[in-house]
Amino acid sequence: MIVKDAVCPFCGCLCDDIEVEVEGNRVVAVTNACELGMTKFMGEKRLKNPILRVENEWKDITYDEAIRYAADMLLSAERPLLYGWSGTHGEAQCVGVHMAELIHGVIDNTSSVCHGPSILAIQEVGHPGCTLGVVKNRADLVIYWGSNPIDAHPRHLSRYTRYAEGFFLENAFRDRKVIVVDVRKTETANIADEFVQIKPGGDYAVLSALRAIVQGKTDTIPRTVAGVTREQLIRVANLCKSAKFGAVYFGLGLTMTQGKYKNIRNAIEFISELNRHTKFTISAMRGHYNVYGSNEVNTWMTGYPFGIDFSRGIAFYNPGETTAVDILARKECDAALIVGSDPAAHFPRKCLEHLAEIPVVQLDPYPNATTAFCNVQIPVAVTGIDAEGTAYRMDGVPIRTRRVLSTDYLSDEEVLSRMYALMQEEPRP
Ligand code: SF4
Q: Which residues form the Molybdopterin oxidoreductase domain (predicted)?
């Protein structure tokens, strides 16, 4: 059987043109996906059933036992943390928010350790963005700033920018210019028309210089700014001003470097400046499959995109205080539910030391680095492969994902809903 138009559940591009060949309920071939997507569809070694740690040995348990364990763990915790959510569907994220509210816990998603600062900047000055389709069809200038899509979002270039056709471009490959701004010459820089190499930590200064040039204050620019010559800055600013439609895509190289959210604010203000001369947009290269969705679901349910603390009985948000890394580093939470992410592979050592001391339940199809910190791991259907649902693409477009395999694994949503039902039987005062 061939499943057409499947959605790849790996990165924020959510490519929706994947063809998957299934034989005997096993994926045997994948067409159109990049290597990252293909690996995801072909699958890894999965856990067969829920496992419970008993004196450093793993014991097989049933779904009912695992769900009961997780519900009891969260109900008896004083300050439970519900973390992850970027690798699962909106329907499961929705149950997670209800659950956090019921137990007065903290719910946070992986954006607090990736594009959280970008969201803070957008909250301050807005987001002049657009869909990927608009960029594909209209943009004659694309800037990748602090991002390397060849490695992290391989089909972004072939579907929307460098190698894509454009409805309003006669010859997109010739007419569309690509500029890469980065601290080192990446693979994406090798295929760009212009590479701007800046010194580490120099993004804010370079953005300020570009803004000044666009405002006509060229005389104020020194001979070099963060390693970039005045001539190159003027050339780039002029390329931007003379474009008919420009798009900036920024990655963690801009968000997580010195200056953090101030960099993004400056970049957005640079785009606002350009919009006095032409049309320009700016968007984040969201990494995890449905991390955008977790921000959306949290925002429409609570008013806040991540790091939401219900300990006061109402939603409270203060990044740096109510975010997972900070709560773990302060040794504040006394139980953790991890869904659709692998914090042990990314979090600082201090956080992991605390994670090792508290009860942890993880929902994930595969054993990963966080498994070593778990008391219980519940294997679930792979979101977007053997469970369908809603995910948000990096440009904020919600897409219904397909189920390509049928398995007996419960989905995240089913496990969380059963857990939530048990918890509702014994609500907190
Ligand atoms: Fe999947 Fe991203 Fe590759 Fe598209 S670019 S196939 S969404 S990993």
A: 46-405
